[in-house]
Design goal:
Elements (H helix, E strand, L loop, with lengths): L10 H11 L4 H14 L3 H15 L7 E2 H11 L6 H11 L5 E2 L1 H13 L15 H12 L3
Protein backbone atom coordinates (compact mmCIF):
# COMPACT_ATOMS: atom_id res chain seq x y z
CA UNK A 1 0.00 0.00 0.00
CA UNK A 2 3.06 2.25 -0.04
CA UNK A 3 2.73 3.28 3.58
CA UNK A 4 5.70 5.24 4.84
CA UNK A 5 5.77 3.81 8.36
CA UNK A 6 4.77 0.61 10.10
CA UNK A 7 1.74 0.60 12.36
CA UNK A 8 -0.41 3.25 10.74
CA UNK A 9 -1.54 4.71 7.42
CA UNK A 10 -2.27 8.30 6.61
CA UNK A 11 -5.62 8.82 4.93
CA UNK A 12 -3.79 9.64 1.69
CA UNK A 13 -1.74 6.43 1.88
CA UNK A 14 -4.87 4.38 2.59
CA UNK A 15 -6.79 5.90 -0.32
CA UNK A 16 -3.85 5.51 -2.71
CA UNK A 17 -3.44 1.87 -1.67
CA UNK A 18 -7.14 1.17 -2.17
CA UNK A 19 -6.99 2.75 -5.65
CA UNK A 20 -3.86 0.75 -6.54
CA UNK A 21 -5.64 -2.44 -5.50
CA UNK A 22 -8.75 -1.36 -7.41
CA UNK A 23 -11.01 -1.74 -4.37
CA UNK A 24 -13.47 0.72 -2.89
CA UNK A 25 -14.27 -0.66 0.56
CA UNK A 26 -13.03 -3.06 3.21
CA UNK A 27 -15.21 -5.93 1.95
CA UNK A 28 -13.57 -5.70 -1.48
CA UNK A 29 -10.18 -5.44 0.22
CA UNK A 30 -10.92 -8.56 2.26
CA UNK A 31 -11.88 -10.49 -0.87
CA UNK A 32 -8.64 -9.34 -2.53
CA UNK A 33 -6.42 -10.78 0.22
CA UNK A 34 -6.11 -14.34 -1.20
CA UNK A 35 -4.95 -12.87 -4.51
CA UNK A 36 -2.40 -10.67 -2.74
CA UNK A 37 -1.14 -13.61 -0.72
CA UNK A 38 -0.87 -15.72 -3.88
CA UNK A 39 1.17 -12.98 -5.56
CA UNK A 40 3.91 -13.60 -2.97
CA UNK A 41 4.52 -17.00 -4.56
CA UNK A 42 6.13 -15.13 -7.44
CA UNK A 43 9.85 -14.87 -6.60
CA UNK A 44 10.22 -11.36 -8.01
CA UNK A 45 7.23 -10.02 -6.09
CA UNK A 46 8.30 -11.78 -2.92
CA UNK A 47 11.79 -10.27 -3.14
CA UNK A 48 10.27 -6.82 -3.69
CA UNK A 49 8.03 -7.32 -0.65
CA UNK A 50 10.92 -8.60 1.49
CA UNK A 51 13.17 -5.71 0.41
CA UNK A 52 10.39 -3.22 1.17
CA UNK A 53 10.04 -4.47 4.74
CA UNK A 54 13.49 -3.26 5.82
CA UNK A 55 12.98 0.50 5.41
CA UNK A 56 9.33 0.11 6.40
CA UNK A 57 10.14 -1.53 9.75
CA UNK A 58 12.75 0.93 10.94
CA UNK A 59 12.44 4.61 11.69
CA UNK A 60 13.71 7.06 9.10
CA UNK A 61 16.59 8.08 11.35
CA UNK A 62 17.82 4.52 11.88
CA UNK A 63 20.29 2.88 9.53
CA UNK A 64 19.63 -0.55 11.01
CA UNK A 65 16.64 -2.49 12.29
CA UNK A 66 16.30 -3.54 15.92
CA UNK A 67 17.08 -7.26 16.15
CA UNK A 68 13.77 -7.99 17.91
CA UNK A 69 11.86 -6.45 15.01
CA UNK A 70 13.93 -8.47 12.53
CA UNK A 71 13.16 -11.67 14.43
CA UNK A 72 9.42 -10.94 14.39
CA UNK A 73 9.48 -10.19 10.67
CA UNK A 74 11.55 -13.27 9.82
CA UNK A 75 9.10 -15.34 11.84
CA UNK A 76 6.16 -13.93 9.87
CA UNK A 77 7.73 -13.69 6.43
CA UNK A 78 10.36 -16.42 6.06
CA UNK A 79 9.91 -19.13 8.68
CA UNK A 80 7.47 -21.22 6.65
CA UNK A 81 9.52 -20.84 3.46
CA UNK A 82 13.09 -21.66 4.44
CA UNK A 83 14.64 -24.28 6.71
CA UNK A 84 17.43 -22.02 7.96
CA UNK A 85 15.10 -19.52 9.60
CA UNK A 86 14.25 -21.28 12.90
CA UNK A 87 17.89 -22.18 13.62
CA UNK A 88 19.16 -18.77 12.57
CA UNK A 89 16.64 -17.18 14.90
CA UNK A 90 17.77 -19.49 17.73
CA UNK A 91 21.36 -18.51 17.02
CA UNK A 92 20.49 -14.81 17.17
CA UNK A 93 18.53 -15.22 20.41
CA UNK A 94 20.99 -17.50 22.23
CA UNK A 95 24.47 -16.88 20.87
CA UNK A 96 24.80 -13.66 18.99
CA UNK A 97 25.46 -10.34 20.70
CA UNK A 98 23.80 -8.61 17.74
CA UNK A 99 21.46 -5.77 18.73
CA UNK A 100 20.59 -4.56 15.22
CA UNK A 101 20.37 -5.99 11.71
CA UNK A 102 21.78 -3.81 8.97
CA UNK A 103 20.48 -3.61 5.43
CA UNK A 104 23.20 -5.88 4.04
CA UNK A 105 22.44 -8.58 6.61
CA UNK A 106 18.70 -8.25 5.97
CA UNK A 107 19.05 -8.51 2.19
CA UNK A 108 21.69 -11.22 2.31
CA UNK A 109 19.64 -13.43 4.61
CA UNK A 110 17.05 -14.07 1.91
CA UNK A 111 19.81 -15.04 -0.53
CA UNK A 112 21.50 -17.20 2.09
CA UNK A 113 18.25 -19.08 2.72
CA UNK A 114 17.75 -19.66 -1.00
CA UNK A 115 21.33 -20.56 -1.93
CA UNK A 116 22.88 -22.37 1.02
CA UNK A 117 21.67 -25.91 1.55
CA UNK A 118 20.34 -26.72 4.99
CA UNK A 119 23.21 -29.11 5.67
CA UNK A 120 25.61 -26.23 4.87
CA UNK A 121 27.58 -28.43 2.48
CA UNK A 122 27.78 -25.69 -0.14
CA UNK A 123 28.75 -22.93 2.28
CA UNK A 124 32.07 -21.35 1.35
CA UNK A 125 33.67 -19.39 4.20
CA UNK A 126 35.60 -17.39 1.61
CA UNK A 127 32.42 -16.06 -0.01
CA UNK A 128 31.30 -12.57 0.76
CA UNK A 129 28.51 -13.31 3.24
CA UNK A 130 28.16 -10.97 6.22
CA UNK A 131 30.22 -12.08 9.23
CA UNK A 132 27.00 -12.84 11.11
CA UNK A 133 26.37 -15.72 8.69
CA UNK A 134 29.90 -17.06 9.16
CA UNK A 135 29.22 -17.10 12.89
CA UNK A 136 25.88 -18.85 12.36
CA UNK A 137 27.51 -21.56 10.25
CA UNK A 138 30.30 -21.99 12.80
CA UNK A 139 27.71 -22.28 15.61
CA UNK A 140 25.73 -24.88 13.65
CA UNK A 141 28.81 -26.94 12.94
CA UNK A 142 30.16 -26.72 16.49
CA UNK A 143 26.79 -27.83 17.87
CA UNK A 144 26.16 -30.35 15.09
CA UNK A 145 22.85 -28.73 14.21
Amino acid sequence: MDASAMGYFTKEEWMKGMRNLNVTDTDELKSKMPELEESLNDEKQFREFYTFTFPFAKTKTQKSMDVDMALVLWEMILKERYEHVPLFMDFIRKQSPVKVINKDQWSSFLDFCKVISFDLSNYDPLSSWPVLFDEYVEWRRENQL
